[in-house]
Amino acid sequence: MTHEKIFVLETGRAVKVVVEGVLASDLSKVSIQVDVLIKDPKDDEFRAPIGLTHPKYWKLRGADPEKASSLQIQYSGITRKHIRKAVREFDKMNTLQAQH
């Protein structure tokens, strides 16, 4: 279960929010994982906000996965409001699928 939503910021940067539902190993619940990718106006494709050339790259490499994801979201330029909107759409999409 995956949902992608693209937001265009005032700077012209496009931010793709990827919301994925991950089923627990015991099949009891679904955890939601959020990742972000960015595309600046000069870029051809989406990429991670913190790459090899970013000053915070080594801080990211040493962080646990949850903190690393939080840093990627922070440096993408997107707001928590955008994240909540993408997660709500993901939930709504899955609720509709479950009803059919």
Describe the protein's architecture and organization.
The chain is of the alpha+beta class and 100 residues long. The chain is 38% helix and 27% strand. The mean pLDDT is 87.
Which helices and strands appear, and what pairs or packs with what?
Layout: E1 2-8, E2 14-23, E3 30-39, H1 57-62, H2 65-76, H3 80-99
Antiparallel strand pairs: 1-2, 2-3
List keywords for this structure.
single chain
Summarize the structure.
The protein is globular, with a radius of gyration of 15 Å.
Uncertain runs are none
In what range is the share of β-strand residues?
Answer: 25-35%
Strand order of the largest sheet: 1-2-3
According to DSSP, the number of beta strands is 3
Secondary-structure element series? EEEHHH
Average pLDDT rating: 87
Radius of gyration: 15 Å
Terminal Cα span: 15 Å
Shape: globular
- Can you count the helices? 3
